[in-house]
């Protein structure tokens, strides 16, 4: 439909994913691996043997919203029919108890009925519908003869308003759910691992088809893998966070155009030991979670997808899809998932570091780089160069230096030392004139 309106190029399938028709064929295992998050973003987890089913009835509204449309419409229709039938029975009993159903001569005046023009259950059912939906044809009405009938009229009106409010609330919430906005957020079918700035980098592409923005959009990456602890405990679902490459040191993105989200594979990455050969045998799943606030409605939304080892391409990068035309940027979504091969060794990031002479850092492996503080004598501090934390070194990362000061005929030698180490005594030597 969007392609016919010119919003998307012809041949582009509007799904949660952008297919890459130019990808080379890859060998896939015979049995497809189970995944926690499907490509469309739904959770692939079946909940079985739930004994406390009554907990769902304690939150009826959420249960109604979570139901499928056919089930919700069936429940609403049944609720209306049951309420109409129930009060039709009440109106018929009132008329029967008051004697309004007895045959009378229309030419002779009789007692005033509780409800006019009720002669059978069918007429009582029609009057029940008129009261609850406030149609008011005018042929039937409640008289002041029976106070009980007035009370039943009030109860039925209140119950009808409650049913209408619940129905309208459920319909509104189902149509305005956050996952509806996520239908126009697309992810690339495949993720890639390619060199960027001299380091292996995990990358995928995300885009928004609508012109309305996603406010405060953040993206989060997690790796789900099966691990075994030192005590032999098997953890089938171990979630590890992956740092998204962002100069602002945050996961916030400005999704005004399709972006390539990247993660540098370093010593702190769960993909540090993954190579081109071991990628196909890895039992991992990389989950992508995009959250933000819809600009038009103010509702918080979330879009999800995942990448299995079969969907990660080694040694490829995404092609550029943005060009500048007539003073504005143009995005070609037909190339959204297209990739091209690049020269990249099949070694893992760990093997590449070992070949380059980078030594591991022991238990502090993967610490981010930072600035160290050193102390110069008493009370003086200065910043050290940005180096990685390394506890295996036998001496501090800086070279101890000595500084000589001459002040009023005194010579003072100060040794620079690292904070936390033992303070060396200062030596002051008097100089004779």
Can you offer a commentary on this structure?
The chain has 433 residues and is α+β, with helices and mostly antiparallel strands. The chain is built from 7 helices and 19 strands. It has helices spanning 54-57, 60-66, 69-98, 121-132, 147-175, 178-181, 349-355; strands at 17-18, 185-188, 191-196, 199-208, 214-228, 234-242, 259-264, 284-294, 300-307, 312-314, 316-318, 322-325, 328-331, 339-341, 370-376, 380-387, 402-407, 410-418, 427-430. A hairpin with a 2-residue loop joins strand 12 and strand 13. Helix 3 (69-98) runs antiparallel to helix 5. 18% of the residues are buried.
- Low-confidence stretches are 1-30, 359-409, 411-433
What is the global morphology? elongated
User: Based on helices, strands and strand pairing, what is the structural class?
Assistant: alpha+beta
Q: Helical segment tally?
A: 7
DSSP, total strands: 19
State the end-to-end CA separation.
96 Å
Mean pLDDT: 76
- Measured by DSSP, the beta-strand proportion falls in 25-35%
How large is the radius of gyration? 36 Å
User: How would you characterize the largest beta sheet?
Assistant: 6 strands, mixed
SSE pattern: EHHHHHHEEEEEEEEEEEEEHEEEEE
Helix content bin: 10-25%
Key phrases:
433 residues, alpha+beta, six-stranded mixed sheet, five-stranded antiparallel sheet, 7 helices, 19 strands, disordered N terminus, disordered C terminus
């Amino acid at each position: 439909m969007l392609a016919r309106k010119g919003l998307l190029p012809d041949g582009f399938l509007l799904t949660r994913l952008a297919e890459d028709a130019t990808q080379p064929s890859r060998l896939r295992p015979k049995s497809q691996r189970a995944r926690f998050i499907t490509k469309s973003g739904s959770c692939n987890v079946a909940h079985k043997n739930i004994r406390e089913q009554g907990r769902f009835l304690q939150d009826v509204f959420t249960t109604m919203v979570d139901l499928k449309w056919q089930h919700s419409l069936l429940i609403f229709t049944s609720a209306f029919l049951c309420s109409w039938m129930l009060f039709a029975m009440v109106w018929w009993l009132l008329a029967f108890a008051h004697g309004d159903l007895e045959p009378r001569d229309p030419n002779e005046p009789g007692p005033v009925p509780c409800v006019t023009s009720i002669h059978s259950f069918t007429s009582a059912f029609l009057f029940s519908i008129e009261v609850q939906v406030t149609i008011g044809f005018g042929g039937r009405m409640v008289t002041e003869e029976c106070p009980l009938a007035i009370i039943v009229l009030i109860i039925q009106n209140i119950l009808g308003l409650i049913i209408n409010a619940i129905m309208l609330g459920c319909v509104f919430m189902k149509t305005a759910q956050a996952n509806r906005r996520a239908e126009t957020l697309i992810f690339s079918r495949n993720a890639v691992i390619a060199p960027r700035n001299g380091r292996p980098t995990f990358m995928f592409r995300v885009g928004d088809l609508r012109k309305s923005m996603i406010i405060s959009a953040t993206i989060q990456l997690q790796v789900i893998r099966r691990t075994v602890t030192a005590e032999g405990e098997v953890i089938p679902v171990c979630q590890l966070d992956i740092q998204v490459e962002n100069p602002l040191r945050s996961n916030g993105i400005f999704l005004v155009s399709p972006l390539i989200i990247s993660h540098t594979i370093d010593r702190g990455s769960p993909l540090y030991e993954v190579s081109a050969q071991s990628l196909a045998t890895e039992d991992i799943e990389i989950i992508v979670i995009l959250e933000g606030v819809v600009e038009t409605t103010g509702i918080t939304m979330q879009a999800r997808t995942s990448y299995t080892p079969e969907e990660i391409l080694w040694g490829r990068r995404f092609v550029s899809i943005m060009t500048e035309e007539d003073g504005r940027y143009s995005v070609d979504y037909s190339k959204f998932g297209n990739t091209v091969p690049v020269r990249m060794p099949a070694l893992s990031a760990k093997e590449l570091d070992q070949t380059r002479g980078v030594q591991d850092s022991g238990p502090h492996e993967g610490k981010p780089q930072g600035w160290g503080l050193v102390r110069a004598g008493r009370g003086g501090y200065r910043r050290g160069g940005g180096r990685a934390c390394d506890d295996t070194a036998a001496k501090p990362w800086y070279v101890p230096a000595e500084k000589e000061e001459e002040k009023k005929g005194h010579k003072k030698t100060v040794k620079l030392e690292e904070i936390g180490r033992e303070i060396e005594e200062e030596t002051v030597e008097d100089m004779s004139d």
